[in-house]
Specification:
This protein is mainly α and 275 residues long. Helices cover 57% and strands 2% of the residues. Strand 1 and strand 2 form a beta hairpin. Helix 3 crosses helix 8. The mean pLDDT is 95.
Length: 275
């Protein structure tokens, strides 16, 4: 400890149990818990702060993606099927999943809305038990939206939604489930830098768009955060070409290059199109 008083202050705000996994890289082995020679608490804290900044960057990109997905799902469904057409079972592949997702929407819509004037206005002005699609998309969680979109059986609507993102519709449906998992970890302040996404891993992109496919594959650790960050980088450029998010991410990674291998970054990642 270079400064024991500072370390004590940090541990009063960030628990031992939360900080414990961040010193794994500094141990000779995780069984004995013996640290490598001259390891300092400040190095461990720097890794924690790196992961915290990475989470905030990921959440920024995920917010941009989430709002765009909500917008496109509502717009394309309303254009094709009207304000309440999204509630028709015939537009979905799996009837049982549709009923479950509909039940979740009812729960989400029936929560108190007195502090949300838009929702409250609709409930006070109309008799429909559920809202039109442009309000439904704002009422439901991203997780539930990913289920509605993933179950969508209308190929034209699916492709129109995916067109904004420049991705194949089937890939985007599966990738959305993965990004929900990333968002949930980040939003609950869980580690991202060395996370293994064994549930809803990012699917393989076989061909198009070529710059994304080439940047993703092959990845030595396909379920690590490298592939998630590569997709988010692609999406940020696609949705807002003038955003400085990619440059901020690159700067953060360059400053913490010692950890990239454990994040699943290939040795040649910097030579890949998106990086």
């Amino acid at each position: 400890f270079d400064d024991e008083a500072r370390a004590e202050a940090i541990l009063s705000r960030v628990s031992y149990s939360r900080l414990r996994p961040y010193w794994h890289p500094f141990e000779v082995n995780n069984a004995s818990h013996k640290f490598r020679g001259e390891t300092t608490f400040e190095e461990v804290w720097a890794l924690y702060e790196f992961d915290r900044t990475l989470r905030l960057l990921a959440l920024e990109a995920l917010e941009r993606f989430e709002v765009a997905l909500r917008t496109q799902w509502a717009h394309q469904m309303a254009s094709a099927h009207g304000p309440f057409g999204y509630l028709e079972k015939k537009h979905y592949r799996d009837a049982q999943h549709f009923e479950k997702d509909l039940g979740r929407l009812r729960e989400e819509w029936n929560r108190p809305t007195k502090d949300d004037p838009i929702f409250e206005h609709f409930k006070n002005s109309y008799q429909e038990p559920l809202p039109p699609v442009w309000l439904a998309c704002e009422a439901m969680s991203l997780g539930n939206l990913s289920k509605w979109y993933g179950n969508l059986n209308d190929r034209v609507v699916s492709q129109n939604i995916a067109r904004l993102f420049g991705l194949p519709d089937r890939y985007l449906k599966n990738a959305t489930r993965h990004l929900v998992s990333v968002r949930n970890h980040a939003a609950h302040h869980a580690r991202l830098w060395d996370r293994v996404f064994s549930v809803y891993p990012l699917p393989r992109l076989h061909k198009n768009p070529g710059n994304l496919a080439e940047s993703l594959e092959p990845s030595p650790q396909p379920q690590k955060i490298y592939r998630s960050l590569t997709l988010l980088r692609y999406l940020m450029v696609r949705l807002d070409p003038h955003n400085d998010w990619p440059a901020r991410l690159t700067a953060l990674l360059h400053a913490n290059a010692a950890y990239l291998d454990r994040m699943g970054f290939p040795a040649d990642y910097a030579r890949r199109p998106l990086w």
